[in-house]
Amino acid sequence: xxxxxxxxxxxxxxxxxxxxxxxxxxxxxxxxxxxxxxxxxxxxxxxxxxxxxxxxxxxxxxxxxxxxxxxxxxxxxxxxxxxxxxxxxxxxxxxxxxxxxxxxxxxxxxxxxxxxxxxxxxxxxxxxxxxxxxxxxxxxxxxxxxxxxxxxxxxxxxxxxxxxxxxxxxxxxxxxxxxxxxxxxxxxxxxxxxxxxxxxxxxxxxxxxxxxxxxxxxxxxxxxxxxxxxxxxxxxxxxxxxxxxxxxxxxxxxxxxxxxxxxxxxxxxxxxxxxxxxxxxxxxxxxxxxxxxxxxxxxxxxxxxxxx
Length: 308
Description:
This protein has 14 helices and two strands; from the N terminus they run αααααβααβααααααα. By secondary structure, the protein is mainly α. It has two domains: 154 residues, Ammonium transporter AmtB like domains (Ammonium transporter fold, Orthogonal Bundle), CATH 1.10.3430; 153 residues, Ammonium transporter fold (Orthogonal Bundle), CATH 1.10.3430. Strands 1-2 form a two-stranded antiparallel ribbon. Helix 12 packs antiparallel against helix 13. The model has no long low-confidence stretch (mean pLDDT 89).
């Protein structure tokens, strides 16, 4: 075990952990991961520490459990742990929420390995599904376990008498928040830094990210989305992830990936609204489920319509 403390090994491991952060954006780049970590730190140092610790935990567990080293070094086993750690630390309350967040990061790594084994047979990427499933399960457990407490910011709502409030003043910062909300942040500087990190990994990634946030905002506005959600950037982050996935990461060279990616970004908007309404009775957020559903849909559709 003495090789663990070798300088080259530590550098490689830390690089993989930073990639665990960048892989939230579907990007395999340690510098991008570092830039994103700084963006989180601008808002909250504890959140940044949770993000880094979660990625380290997920990476270490799978590395020493015999996972493929190439996959580990790409940060694939870190990003679901990062999102789970961040989500549980933000959406839970009480002194033990940090412990639950760390335990969640551990379990997320195991969920990732298990679901990779299942979905790879279907030739479908796992994306952020392990994080979504685990986070929802933990949050739902709060209704039956006193040790797990939901944040007071999450309010259960009865959808029967629900009335949509579309009035209010538009804040155009909501457009750029569509980037930072990927990491649960509502901060212009953080959003700009994350966008810089995306451009660092590739100009095409950056351009598509910008197109994604603009297209999704215009779509949500055109469909009469609630102004509060627009101003918080809640319709943007799933669209950004979807367009990056379809137009770049899982692009089909024989198809029209640019058009398909734009369509995917647009579709995430009504699906986000739908899942939000579905989750209202439990006070749960949609998380990145719209991104996962749309990406799975588009990838599966290409198998039957290869020119798209």
